[in-house]
Amino acid sequence: MVRIGVASGALTNITSGLLAVGLHHREEIPQDLGGALTDVLSDGDFSGKEGETALLYVPGALASPRLLLVGLGECSSFNLDKLRCVSATVAKRASTLKLDQAAFALPAPNGSETREAAKAAAEGALLGLYRFDHYKTDEENHELETFTLISDDEDAAAAGIEIGTKLAAGTILARDLANEPSNTATPEYLAVKACVIADRYGMHVVVLDRTGIEAESLTGLATVGRSAKNEPRFIVLEHRKGGEEAPIVLVGKAVTFDSGGISIKPSVNMGEMKYDMSGGAAVLGAMEAVGSLDLPMNIIALVPATENLPGGDAFKPGDVLKLHSGKTVEIVTTDAEGRLILADALSYAKRYDPAAVVDCATLTGACHIALGDHASGLMGNDEELATKVRNAGEVCGERAWPLPLFAEHTEQIKGDTADIRNSGGRYGGALTAGAFLKEFVDYPWAHLDIAGTAYYGKPKNAYTPRGASGAPTRLLIEFLRGQAKDQSKEA
């Protein structure tokens, strides 16, 4: 991974393969670059519009041989997420030019401190350079070695870079796990990755195999994974650095391949169902960052992992299951399996007497239809918790939008032969799925439906490529960092 550094000094004296400078729309030329930029700006070749770039060769005017101008757009609308995109654009341009080094004069959005700006820029550069190509035998890519942020406040910038680098590393892990083909990323594979994280940071880890899952009466997970040759796993990671504080529990759905089971999906685009474990991948990515940041709090990760495949031993529409909580569920469709394994995990979480639980899952196509790929759906039973989760998403650029859970949505899932059904029908599908999960919680809880944000068929922006996005890894970490600050104030 490219090393992110920091330096200060006059831009004309910065020595790098590429020096990048961001300018707002119609912004005046920085004094120390005036001679190098006057002609190109006066000719109208570059105006600072958002996304605009101009590569200049200005021999003698700068210590760096190449100057990249990057448009920041209007000053009033420039924010941290646009800074991530700009930083990614600069890093990728340097990589395309096959350079070893690049430098970027760090711009700070209005109201943002240097530390937060540097954090966002580090995230953008690292995530923008991300590729998943290790299965390509003839791929030749140049790796940028050093990306330097230019800032007068080196200490604050260095602190931001350290945090941003760790957040990006967690997101990259989540992307890698989700991008892996399902014949590699099996439930056992995820369990091994969890053990690696636990060993690296001194976390406690428990992995239940099929026998252990059945012994714990995690019936939803056991049933969904019953017909798969790759057996299910229930993964528990515990980061215990908060003394006697009640823990926060993260739950991530990890269906490593979802065929729909007996209620089989159409074959078109079925290969994308390897991404149905993106919630679990994000939780493991968040725990990687939790460990590297050494957050002073108690955090538990629960990842139910399984395949959902048809077979002679597969569960069927019309079956009735008694889940971990004791509640009975009538199976309407085997393609609504994610909520079954999440229900078990949410019930299991009660043993920790948690301060809050946040789950994330590629749960419903209905949420994707409702919100597109621009935001995750946010539901829950606690307004304060939901607000904190939503605010964390705004900070990191992984937006979540609140959706209601009315009593009528619970009415839709009432069962005929069991307590509830695992599908409430076509209308309000994301909301009835949320209502289903709500039946298994008695603590502050928030649910993120990431069906539209977990992966993309084409690049979303400069730092989010085609394939797995890693969302909501950074949202979870920002939320946890905020909770850690709140706990330190209370102490």
Would you give an account of this structure?
The protein has 491 residues and is α/β, with parallel strands linked by helices. The chain has two domains: 3-151, Leucine Aminopeptidase, subunit E, domain 1 (3-Layer(aba) Sandwich), CATH 3.40.220.10; 170-490, Zn peptidases (Aminopeptidase, 3-Layer(aba) Sandwich). It has helices spanning 34-42, 80-96, 114-128, 154-179, 187-201, 210-215, 219-224, 278-293, 338-348, 365-371, 383-396, 407-412, 429-438, 473-490, and strands at residues 3-7, 19-24, 53-57, 66-73, 101-105, 146-150, 204-208, 233-240, 248-252, 254-258, 298-308, 320-322, 328-330, 356-361, 376-380, 400-402, 420-421, 445-449, 455-456, 467-468. The longest helix is centred in the middle third of the chain and has 26 residues, at 154-179.
